[in-house]
Structures are given as C-alpha cells and as structure tokens.
Design the sequence.
C-alpha cells in the first residue's frame, strides 16, 4: 500500500496555486476547482480543492534535507513564517507557516529519525 495524495481545502484557488508554486512545487493539474502538484523530489503529490467552508485541522509536512537553505530562499520571496527552523524534542527540525487559506504547513528535516526514531516500536 502507498499513500496517493493529500487534498487541502482552499478558499481562493488562484492565490493558493501561486503560493504553492512559489514554494517550489510543480503544478500538474489546473482547473478552477482543483489543482494538483508534484513534489520537486520523489514522486509524491498533493492537491487543492476549492471549498466554500474551508476549515482544516490537518497539518501537511514537506521534507527537505536542506531545510535551512530552503527557508532562507522562501524568506527572500517574502514568505512569512510563524516559526523559523527549530530543533524539536522529537528529533525533527521544523519551520511553520500557513498557506493563504490558513492551512498549517510544516517544512522539516528528520533524516533517519523520520522512520526510525529511537522510540520506534518493533
């Protein structure tokens, strides 16, 4: 089994598409009510769906080995962060931001600890 994609609700498709393209994702499907992106590394995708009542409690994570460089490049594009890259107690380094619809995004690097933290269940 493999995860196909995650779909985020958005209030304004045009603003959302521009935002995710600015983050570096490749637009592969573009309609007025639905957009899908390919991650620049690997084969993962995610999508956006236009929703009138856009409330989402989920958090989407995007991993990048050069997290600090990526965040620095986004800061130069005037992307606003709630939290700059910070080492977490669970051994991940994370930055936090929100898309134009209020969806919470964590940019992170966890390395080996993503799948094999010291507390992994055998």
Sequence:
């Amino acid at each position: 089994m493999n995860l196909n994609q995650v779909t985020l609700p958005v209030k304004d498709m045009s603003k959302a598409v521009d935002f995710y393209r600015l983050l570096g994702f490749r637009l592969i499907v573009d309609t007025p009510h639905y957009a899908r992106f390919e991650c620049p590394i690997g084969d993962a995708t995610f999508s956006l769906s236009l929703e009138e009542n856009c409330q989402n409690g989920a958090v989407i994570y995007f991993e990048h080995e050069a997290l600090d460089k990526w965040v620095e490049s986004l800061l130069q594009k005037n992307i606003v962060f709630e939290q700059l890259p910070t080492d977490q107690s669970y051994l991940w380094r994370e930055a936090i931001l929100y898309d134009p619809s209020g969806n919470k995004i964590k940019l992170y690097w966890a390395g080996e600890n993503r799948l094999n933290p010291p507390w992994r269940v055998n």
